[in-house]
C-alpha cells in the first residue's frame, strides 16, 4: 500500500510542477468561469470550448497549492473529447472519491487517473483544494456568472 501511495504522491507532484493545459482558451466560443478557495487562497480559472457536443478543449489558469493545481491539470486531460454529461459523471466520481465515498463509484475504469486523489479524503481541509477546479468547470459548462467559491 505504501508503494501505491508513493506513486500517487509522485503523480500529484508531477502535475503540480508541470501542469497540463495551463493556459486560457481564447475566442468567442470559449466558456469561462473563475473560482476561489478562501480557506487557503487557491484561485483558478477554467476555460473550455464545446464543439459537436464534445469538450474540444479544456484549460485552466491560476495559482494554488499542489493538490489544487494537480487536480485541475488531471481534470483538463480527462475531460477533453467527452460530452458534458460525461464531464458531470466524472465530477460526481471525483466528488465521491475526495469526500470519502468511494463505495458510490460503481465502475473501476471510471476512476482512472482520479485514483491519485483517493488520499485527499483523509485530510478534510484539502477536499476543497482538490474539488475547486471541478466546481469551476461545472460553472463554465453552465455559463454561470460570478465567482465560484468553496464556502
Which stretches are low in confidence, meaning pLDDT under 50 for 5 or more residues running? none
Looking at CATH, which topology would you report?
Answer: Sufe protein. Chain: A
Total DSSP E strands: 4
Largest sheet: 4 strands, mixed
Order of helices and strands: HEEEHHHHE
Shape: globular
Compute the average pLDDT: 91
Number of helices: 5
Our Rg estimate from Cα atoms comes to 14 Å
Q: What count of domains describes the coordinates? A: 1
Which quaternary structure do these chains form? Answer: single chain
Keywords:
151 residues; alpha+beta; Sufe protein. Chain: A; four-stranded mixed beta sheet; 5 helices
Write up this protein:
The protein is of the alpha+beta class and 151 residues long. The chain has a single domain (2-146), classed as Sufe protein. Chain: A (Alpha-Beta Complex). The protein is built from 5 helices and 4 strands; from the N terminus they run αβββααααβ. The longest helix has 19 residues, at 124-142. The protein is globular, with a radius of gyration of 14 Å. The N and C termini lie far apart (33 Å). 36% of the residues are buried.
Amino acid at each position: 500500500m505504501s508503494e501505491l501511495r508513493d506513486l500517487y504522491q509522485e503523480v500529484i507532484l508531477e502535475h503540480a510542477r508541470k501542469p497540463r493545459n495551463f493556459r486560457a482558451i481564447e475566442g468567442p466560443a470559449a466558456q469561462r468561469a473563475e473560482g476561489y478557495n478562501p480557506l487557503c487562497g487557491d484561485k483558478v480559472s477554467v476555460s473550455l470550448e464545446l464543439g459537436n457536443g464534445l469538450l474540444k478543449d479544456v484549460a485552466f489558469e491560476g495559482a494554488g497549492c499542489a493538490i489544487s493545481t494537480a487536480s485541475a491539470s488531471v481534470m483538463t486531460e480527462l475531460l477533453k473529447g467527452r460530452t458534458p454529461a460525461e464531464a458531470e459523471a466524472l465530477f460526481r466520481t471525483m466528488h465521491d472519491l475526495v469526500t470519502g465515498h468511494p463505495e458510490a463509484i460503481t465502475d473501476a475504469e471510471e476512476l482512472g487517473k482520479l485514483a491519485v486523489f483517493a488520499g485527499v479524503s483523509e485530510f478534510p481541509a484539502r477536499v476543497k483544494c482538490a474539488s475547486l477546479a471541478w466546481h469551476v468547470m461545472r460553472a463554465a459548462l453552465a455559463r454561470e456568472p460570478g465567482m465560484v467559491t468553496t464556502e
